[in-house]
Amino acid sequence: HVFEASLIFLLEANAITEDDKQQIQSLRDYRNKLAHDIPRIIDDEHACASDEQIRLAGHYLSKIDNFWGRVEVDTDPDLDRDGIDYEGIVSGRSLIFQYIAAIAKDGSA
Fold first, then answer.
1. Among 24, 19, 32, which residue's Cα sits nearest to residue 4?
2. How many other C-beta atoms lie within 10 A of the C-beta of residue 47?
3. 0.90 exceeded by the pTM?
């Protein structure tokens, strides 16, 4: 299972904690439940993801993308690393997720 193997790799690389791994798995399980029961979701407004689940998904997406951004910076021999704010590395994917999450929450970006 690629997903579980990826989580184990990220855990061993110290990109996530064991608690993060379990919460990510829980979010994935919930996502799968929603994705496989679309007729019920359409009919039940309470079946959608909560604001907290969306926030957590965004948090973990940003955390993992930041890890990969750090890897990219550290392995690029042509990059000048002076002054790089490693904590401030944000992926385009994370920015798009934040934008969509804001629309889903408030109806506007």
1. 24
2. 13
3. no
